[in-house]
Amino acid sequence: MRPFFYFLLAGLIITGSSCNEIIDKVAKENAAETRKLDSLDLISEEENPLESSTPISDKFDIIEKYKQGTDSIHKVRTYYISGEKFSDELYKNHKRDGIFVFYYPNGNILCRLKCKDGHYDELLEVKSKRGKNLDGGNLKAGNGLLKIYNPETERVDFEMNLKNYLRQGEFMYYYATGDLKAKGHFDNDSIDGLLEVYFKNGNKR
Questions:
Q1: Is it the case that residue 139 has pLDDT exceeding 50?
Q2: Cα–Cα distance for residue pair 141/115, rounded to 1 Å
Q3: What is the DSSP letter of 58?
Q4: Cα separation of 183 and 179, whole Å?
Q5: Model confidence band, residue 199 (pLDDT cutoffs 50, 70, 90)
Q6: I need a labelling partner for 52 at 20 to 30 A (CA). Which of 37, 86, 102, 131 fits?
Protein backbone atom coordinates (compact mmCIF):
# COMPACT_ATOMS: atom_id res chain seq x y z
CA MET A 1 0.00 0.00 0.00
CA ARG A 2 1.14 3.49 -0.65
CA PRO A 3 0.55 6.58 1.47
CA PHE A 4 -2.05 6.94 3.09
CA PHE A 5 -0.63 6.37 0.80
CA TYR A 6 -2.03 3.47 1.45
CA PHE A 7 -5.28 3.96 3.09
CA LEU A 8 -8.53 5.64 2.18
CA LEU A 9 -8.68 5.09 -1.51
CA ALA A 10 -11.47 7.62 -1.75
CA GLY A 11 -14.11 9.07 0.49
CA LEU A 12 -17.26 7.90 -1.14
CA ILE A 13 -20.87 8.40 -0.16
CA ILE A 14 -22.47 5.75 -2.33
CA THR A 15 -25.95 6.64 -3.57
CA GLY A 16 -28.21 5.94 -6.52
CA SER A 17 -27.89 3.53 -9.42
CA SER A 18 -24.37 4.75 -10.35
CA CYS A 19 -22.80 3.05 -7.32
CA ASN A 20 -21.04 0.26 -9.22
CA GLU A 21 -19.88 2.62 -11.96
CA ILE A 22 -18.33 4.97 -9.39
CA ILE A 23 -16.61 2.10 -7.55
CA ASP A 24 -15.27 0.55 -10.76
CA LYS A 25 -14.00 3.89 -12.09
CA VAL A 26 -12.22 4.86 -8.86
CA ALA A 27 -10.80 1.36 -8.35
CA LYS A 28 -9.39 1.19 -11.89
CA GLU A 29 -7.83 4.65 -11.69
CA ASN A 30 -6.21 3.94 -8.35
CA ALA A 31 -5.10 0.45 -9.40
CA ALA A 32 -3.23 2.02 -12.31
CA GLU A 33 -1.65 4.61 -10.03
CA THR A 34 -0.69 1.93 -7.50
CA ARG A 35 0.99 -0.19 -10.19
CA LYS A 36 2.95 2.89 -11.22
CA LEU A 37 4.04 3.56 -7.63
CA ASP A 38 4.80 -0.10 -6.94
CA SER A 39 7.09 -0.20 -9.97
CA LEU A 40 9.24 2.39 -8.22
CA ASP A 41 9.40 0.17 -5.12
CA LEU A 42 9.85 3.18 -2.87
CA ILE A 43 8.69 3.96 0.66
CA SER A 44 7.22 7.38 1.34
CA GLU A 45 7.82 9.24 4.59
CA GLU A 46 4.12 10.06 4.57
CA GLU A 47 3.02 6.42 4.79
CA ASN A 48 0.55 5.52 7.50
CA PRO A 49 2.05 2.57 9.33
CA LEU A 50 -1.36 1.10 10.02
CA GLU A 51 -2.30 1.02 6.39
CA SER A 52 0.75 -0.45 4.76
CA SER A 53 -0.36 -4.04 4.42
CA THR A 54 -2.53 -4.14 1.31
CA PRO A 55 -2.37 -2.24 -2.02
CA ILE A 56 -4.77 0.68 -2.16
CA SER A 57 -6.29 -0.75 -5.34
CA ASP A 58 -7.70 -3.64 -3.28
CA LYS A 59 -10.07 -1.45 -1.23
CA PHE A 60 -12.83 1.11 -1.39
CA ASP A 61 -14.67 3.01 1.35
CA ILE A 62 -18.26 3.75 2.24
CA ILE A 63 -18.69 6.65 4.62
CA GLU A 64 -21.74 7.35 6.76
CA LYS A 65 -21.93 10.86 8.21
CA TYR A 66 -24.20 11.95 11.04
CA LYS A 67 -24.43 14.28 14.01
CA GLN A 68 -24.22 13.17 17.65
CA GLY A 69 -25.06 16.19 19.75
CA THR A 70 -22.65 18.89 18.66
CA ASP A 71 -20.12 16.36 17.36
CA SER A 72 -19.66 15.43 13.73
CA ILE A 73 -19.39 11.64 13.38
CA HIS A 74 -18.01 9.75 10.37
CA LYS A 75 -18.43 6.00 10.34
CA VAL A 76 -16.08 4.51 7.74
CA ARG A 77 -16.34 0.94 6.53
CA THR A 78 -13.65 -0.13 4.07
CA TYR A 79 -14.07 -3.14 1.79
CA TYR A 80 -11.76 -5.29 -0.27
CA ILE A 81 -12.75 -5.01 -3.94
CA SER A 82 -13.84 -8.66 -3.64
CA GLY A 83 -16.61 -7.48 -1.28
CA GLU A 84 -15.34 -8.54 2.14
CA LYS A 85 -14.87 -6.02 4.95
CA PHE A 86 -11.35 -4.67 5.42
CA SER A 87 -11.91 -2.30 8.34
CA ASP A 88 -14.39 -0.37 10.48
CA GLU A 89 -13.50 2.93 12.11
CA LEU A 90 -15.11 5.99 13.65
CA TYR A 91 -14.07 9.62 13.28
CA LYS A 92 -15.25 12.22 15.78
CA ASN A 93 -14.83 15.79 14.56
CA HIS A 94 -12.47 14.49 11.86
CA LYS A 95 -10.26 12.54 14.30
CA ARG A 96 -10.19 8.78 14.82
CA ASP A 97 -12.02 8.02 18.04
CA GLY A 98 -13.33 4.68 19.30
CA ILE A 99 -12.60 1.11 18.24
CA PHE A 100 -10.72 0.61 14.95
CA VAL A 101 -11.15 -2.94 13.57
CA PHE A 102 -9.20 -4.67 10.77
CA TYR A 103 -10.49 -7.89 9.16
CA TYR A 104 -9.01 -10.78 7.21
CA PRO A 105 -10.57 -11.49 3.81
CA ASN A 106 -12.31 -14.51 5.42
CA GLY A 107 -14.20 -12.13 7.74
CA ASN A 108 -12.33 -12.94 10.94
CA ILE A 109 -10.90 -10.09 13.00
CA LEU A 110 -7.22 -9.34 12.45
CA CYS A 111 -6.91 -6.69 15.17
CA ARG A 112 -8.82 -4.20 17.26
CA LEU A 113 -7.31 -0.88 18.29
CA LYS A 114 -8.75 1.75 20.59
CA CYS A 115 -8.26 5.27 19.30
CA LYS A 116 -8.59 8.46 21.31
CA ASP A 117 -8.76 11.99 19.93
CA GLY A 118 -6.93 10.99 16.74
CA HIS A 119 -4.25 8.89 18.42
CA TYR A 120 -3.72 5.15 18.89
CA ASP A 121 -4.56 4.51 22.53
CA GLU A 122 -4.60 0.76 23.22
CA LEU A 123 -4.16 -2.51 21.38
CA LEU A 124 -7.12 -4.71 22.33
CA GLU A 125 -6.34 -7.88 20.37
CA VAL A 126 -4.50 -9.34 17.38
CA LYS A 127 -5.62 -12.68 15.92
CA SER A 128 -4.54 -15.15 13.26
CA LYS A 129 -6.94 -16.11 10.47
CA ARG A 130 -8.03 -19.07 12.60
CA GLY A 131 -8.55 -16.97 15.72
CA LYS A 132 -5.34 -17.68 17.63
CA ASN A 133 -3.72 -14.84 19.57
CA LEU A 134 -0.74 -13.12 17.92
CA ASP A 135 1.88 -10.88 19.51
CA GLY A 136 0.81 -7.37 18.59
CA GLY A 137 2.90 -5.62 21.21
CA ASN A 138 1.86 -3.99 24.48
CA LEU A 139 0.38 -0.60 23.54
CA LYS A 140 -1.75 0.81 26.36
CA ALA A 141 -2.75 4.38 27.29
CA GLY A 142 -0.72 5.67 24.34
CA ASN A 143 2.52 3.99 25.42
CA GLY A 144 4.26 0.84 24.21
CA LEU A 145 5.07 -1.29 21.18
CA LEU A 146 2.58 -1.78 18.34
CA LYS A 147 2.94 -4.44 15.63
CA ILE A 148 0.77 -4.45 12.50
CA TYR A 149 0.26 -7.71 10.60
CA ASN A 150 -0.23 -8.29 6.88
CA PRO A 151 -3.73 -9.79 6.36
CA GLU A 152 -2.48 -12.08 3.59
CA THR A 153 0.77 -13.44 5.04
CA GLU A 154 0.02 -13.10 8.79
CA ARG A 155 3.56 -11.80 9.22
CA VAL A 156 4.47 -8.52 10.92
CA ASP A 157 4.30 -5.75 8.33
CA PHE A 158 5.25 -2.77 10.48
CA GLU A 159 6.22 -2.10 14.08
CA MET A 160 6.75 1.07 16.06
CA ASN A 161 6.85 2.44 19.59
CA LEU A 162 4.62 5.14 21.03
CA LYS A 163 5.22 7.37 24.04
CA ASN A 164 2.52 9.66 25.37
CA TYR A 165 0.49 8.94 22.20
CA LEU A 166 3.33 10.06 19.89
CA ARG A 167 5.42 7.80 17.66
CA GLN A 168 8.84 7.62 19.25
CA GLY A 169 12.07 5.75 18.57
CA GLU A 170 12.88 3.11 15.98
CA PHE A 171 10.28 1.77 13.53
CA MET A 172 10.60 -1.01 10.97
CA TYR A 173 8.86 -2.17 7.78
CA TYR A 174 9.07 -5.76 6.55
CA TYR A 175 8.65 -7.56 3.23
CA ALA A 176 5.95 -10.23 2.96
CA THR A 177 8.72 -12.78 3.52
CA GLY A 178 9.45 -11.29 6.94
CA ASP A 179 12.77 -9.76 5.85
CA LEU A 180 13.53 -6.16 6.79
CA LYS A 181 12.43 -3.65 4.14
CA ALA A 182 13.23 -0.37 5.88
CA LYS A 183 13.86 1.18 9.25
CA GLY A 184 13.97 4.66 10.64
CA HIS A 185 13.50 6.77 13.74
CA PHE A 186 10.62 8.87 15.04
CA ASP A 187 11.13 11.89 17.27
CA ASN A 188 7.89 13.23 18.75
CA ASP A 189 5.76 11.84 15.91
CA SER A 190 8.03 13.09 13.10
CA ILE A 191 10.59 11.09 11.14
CA ASP A 192 14.07 12.01 12.36
CA GLY A 193 16.77 11.54 9.74
CA LEU A 194 16.74 9.28 6.70
CA LEU A 195 15.12 5.88 6.18
CA GLU A 196 17.43 2.93 5.75
CA VAL A 197 15.96 0.91 2.89
CA TYR A 198 16.94 -2.66 2.05
CA PHE A 199 16.69 -4.95 -0.95
CA LYS A 200 15.01 -8.32 -0.46
CA ASN A 201 18.45 -9.95 -0.34
CA GLY A 202 19.28 -7.92 2.76
CA ASN A 203 21.67 -5.46 1.11
CA LYS A 204 21.21 -1.75 1.72
CA ARG A 205 19.96 0.36 -1.14
A1: yes
A2: 10
A3: G
A4: 12
A5: very high
A6: 131
